[in-house]
Amino acid sequence: MNNSTQQSQVPLVLQAKGLIKRYGHVTALDGVDLELRQGEILAVIGDNGAGKSSLIKALSGAIVPDEGEILLDGKPVHFKSPIDARKQGIETVYQDLAVAPSMTIAENLFLGREILKPGILGTLFRALDKKKMLEDAIAHMQDLKIGIRSMKQPVETLSGGQRQGVAVARSAAFARHVVIMDEPTAALGVKEGNMVLELIRRVRDKGLPVILISHNMPHVFEIADRIHIQRLGRRAAVVNPKNIGMSDAVAVMTGAMKPEELGSEAHA
Amino acid sequence: MKKIFHQIATIPAAGAFLALAIACLFFSMQSDRFLSGQNFSLILQQVMVVGVMAIGQTLIILTAGIDLSCGMVMALSSIIMTKFFDAYGLNPYLSILCGLAVAMLFGWFNGMLVTRIKLPPFIVTLGTMNIAFAITQVYSGAQTVTNVPAALTFFGNTFHIGGTTLSYGTLLLVALYVFVWWFLRDTAPGRHVYAVGNSPEAARLTGIPTDRVLLWVYTIAGLFYGIAALLSVARTGVGDPQAGQTDNLDSITAVVLGGTSLFGGRGVVLGTLIGAVIVGVFRNGLTLMGVASVYQILVTGILVILAVATDQMSRKRG
């Protein structure tokens, strides 16, 4: 098992161990494990009902698992809400473009985390330091090479891909440990989807590990470093996209092929 | 031409300003008394009460809510202010504070029902509108309170600039608008009001305590109804249990005419001031033309439907 020796060398940023989540008689998570390494894009794929979204919700704090533990940098963490997860440096980008359409790009970037003016205006009225917010917004967008003419334009004037760019920039700006992306390209056209993929790469290259949930196999195979295949509430396998075909990955995902039937080079 | 029109349409409250200009032009052709400083100060006096109420209404509509109780809460508050002095001999300033507190309590109650029990604001405030009305009638015995101390009528006092008479209430009206405009535009809680109106879910996911924002908005709106009550007492010199009956619709009309969307998240409070002045100009202009007050109500009804229809259509297009 030279895989396990390799694994132990790369530090794990986020780790889930034996997560269980039941909804009445339905078991959404049946003891799932997940490991996210430093500096990687880990894709999570799975059929509908495989527990993909429950897993992601548990990691981003949207649901509390019944059993199991989550470790961040090796330390156990307990999230009661997405806000808890955010405080620990885990940011999530949602599929449905969670932005405020009539507000400006700069405002959206800092929504809920505004920079306040120093002095009495800031402490008493919580007045905004708009100048600083604008400068920082420009810096964050340039950091990810997102070209937008004015930070003062309302988000609703942007295309879907640009809006998602704002959401990605927001998460990259504030995440200290992990960025989770839940179907970030699902609502987008081909060109815009590719643009967002490029952004995800840049986020990783900045040093932030990314968990990417996607239905889009070509996207997953294009940018993932490793692929976590979720099936029946558990982790069926973790595979290396360079050494496995798309059809085999889908076969494992749907249960048409057992993970053991894959060649040893396919596992990651 | 179309492009210019479109650009004008994107400036908030530009439509309201245009409508105001057209209305003024029309009425000045109908009556030569319309365009005088004296008449404008009269309009501002008349607009004062609805104008301050409409600030609270704007805050609520920005969160995609609506408040039908504002007029009745204002009437109750004005009865509390006057009757606490008249019946119990309470210090007039304490009476004012009690009136403001009751108005805020009603606002808080609306907010609790909207955030905790998740009832639609329309139904909640329809209910509290009737509750406030009933309490007002029972407590006042449907009698007007005429024994009003000077402290309660201070904002009705006037001063002169040039040949124009202005009241302190008008100054307060403008000051409140300027403050709320700044607050909504330049502070974090102000922007959170817009964020909640835009998309409550997106706001929640970014960590904004959306229920707290809503509760705060409804409570502060109550405070504005209380201030409107004080101005109403100052203007009329009495505590009137029948006050505020047309103010629910007038305040909503002012907000919508001012370009704030009933769908929430869009609008500028200064537009509401223009909207309130439009309502005042119509009432005043039609009076000068000798149009009976029933028809003025008819015109307000048409105005509000026109304004909402414009909002609806611009949403569909955009």
Features:
heterodimer, A: 268 residues, alpha/beta, Rossmann fold, 2 domains, globular, B: 318 residues, 75% helix
What would you say about this model in short?
The complex is a heterodimer of chains A (268) and B (318). Chain A is α/β, with parallel strands linked by helices and 268 residues long.
Helix-strand blueprint:
The complex is a heterodimer of chains A (268) and B (318).
Chain A: H1 2-9, E1 12-23, E2 26-37, E3 41-46, H2 52-60, E4 67-72, E5 75-77, H3 82-87, E6 90-93, H4 105-109, H5 120-124, H6 130-143, H7 160-174, E7 178-182, H8 190-205, E8 210-213, H9 217-223, E9 226-231, E10 234-239, H10 246-254
Helix pairs in contact in A: 7-8
Chain B: H1 2-10, H2 14-30, H3 37-62, H4 70-88, H5 92-115, H6 121-140, H7 150-153, E1 158-161, E2 164-167, H8 168-186, H9 188-198, H10 200-205, H11 210-236, H12 247-257, H13 269-288, H14 293-317
Antiparallel strand pairs in B: 1-2
Helix pairs in contact in B: 2-13, 3-8, 3-11, 3-12, 3-13, 4-5, 4-6, 4-11, 5-6, 5-11, 8-9, 9-11, 12-13, 12-14, 13-14
The poorly predicted ranges of chain A are 1-5
Shape by Cα distribution of chain A: globular
Biggest sheet details of chain B: 2 strands, antiparallel
> How far is the N terminus from the C terminus of chain B?
19 Å
The percentage helix of chain B is over 70%
Assembly annotation? heterodimer
Number of E-type strands of chain A? 10
The helix content of chain A, as a percent range, equals: 25-40%
Instruction: Give the overall average pLDDT of chain A.
Output: 89
- Give the overall silhouette of chain B: globular
CATH superfamily of the largest domain in chain A: P-loop containing nucleotide triphosphate hydrolases
- Beta content of chain B: under 5%
Based on the coordinates given, report the CATH architecture of the largest domain in chain A.
3-Layer(aba) Sandwich
| Count of DSSP-assigned helices of chain B | 14
Computed CA radius of gyration of chain A, to the nearest angstrom:
19 Å
Largest interface: A-B, 23 and 21 residues
Secondary structural class of chain B = mainly alpha
Strand order of the largest sheet of chain B: 1-2
Largest sheet of chain A: 6 strands, mixed
Write down the secondary-structure element order of chain A. HEEEHEEHEHHHHEHEHEEH
- Global Rg of chain B: 19 Å
